[in-house]
């Protein structure tokens, strides 16, 4: 391994990314050094490139978060870390590390905390492995945000249902899978072209969010199925109000919980006896670390036994680090039920 490596560096707010050499770092006590094989792109990546949001405290910066690769070296306290040479997926983001560029995924070698690195089976390619970390973490955080244990397992007799508004997003596809494992009957909104795929992942019923009567369609289906719909994950902007309109008709006098993935505005709509929270990991560093451990251990087990699959399908774009600007522009232009991945 060379003492330097190529990285797609963000010199200043507004980009573009520029590929340059930077010093290859050493992992700290509870950290892992990874050789990146593929990165998956998220909206946060082009927001940081183009607008500096979420705020980037250090320039030049290295952004990115979803990655897959090979373990090169583990720190002295990373006792349970995958051994060198292991194929892994990782959440490698500078966002939780004061913007320090050693932790951003858009480079050949990156540092990641050991709790955010999991082995991937040989049946999962690096390209598919890269789509997993952030979407899976976000879908799992939705449950803990409303006080639900990840060990929850409903049976059909419990008649528990969940509404996922925005099922064809990367988070939405994992939300469908995790909801199915927990035991929910899963009701999903998405474009009709994606309904069959979401049913394969575990959706019970899918609805076209553009339909004028989508709210009444969902309410009617829930009542016909005789289930309790008082839990919802609203993943896309503008989905909170229709979600609450549905819960108003389905939750009865029971308390309800709604998790909203976009930033929750202070003047958001409300509903009686309903908890509405932003989907976000704990702020306290130690609580956040414990949460990450719990989520990624859950995910590692689900990948190993095959109950969760990488989703949505990877849309592979070429060019390596030099191709990241064009790939981010494609993501910014909008894609549906796919995640852009760039091999490195």
Q: What's the short story on this structure?
A:
By secondary structure, this protein is of the alpha/beta class. It has helices at residues 43-51, 126-129, 133-145, 170-182, 195-201, 214-225, 240-250, 285-305, 324-332; strands spanning 4-9, 18-23, 31-40, 66-74, 87-91, 109-113, 117-119, 160-165, 185-189, 205-207, 228-234, 256-260, 274-278, 314-316, 339-343.
Features of the shown structure:
344 residues, 6-stranded parallel β-sheet, 15 strands, Rossmann fold, 9 helices, alpha/beta, Quinone Oxidoreductase, Chain A, domain 1, 7-stranded mixed β-sheet, globular
Layout of secondary structure:
Blueprint: E1 4-9, E2 18-23, E3 31-40, H1 43-51, E4 66-74, E5 87-91, E6 109-113, E7 117-119, H2 126-129, H3 133-145, E8 160-165, H4 170-182, E9 185-189, H5 195-201, E10 205-207, H6 214-225, E11 228-234, H7 240-250, E12 256-260, E13 274-278, H8 285-305, E14 314-316, H9 324-332, E15 339-343
Parallel strand pairs: 8-9, 8-11, 9-10, 11-12, 12-13, 14-15
Antiparallel strand pairs: 1-2, 3-4, 3-6, 3-15, 4-5, 5-7
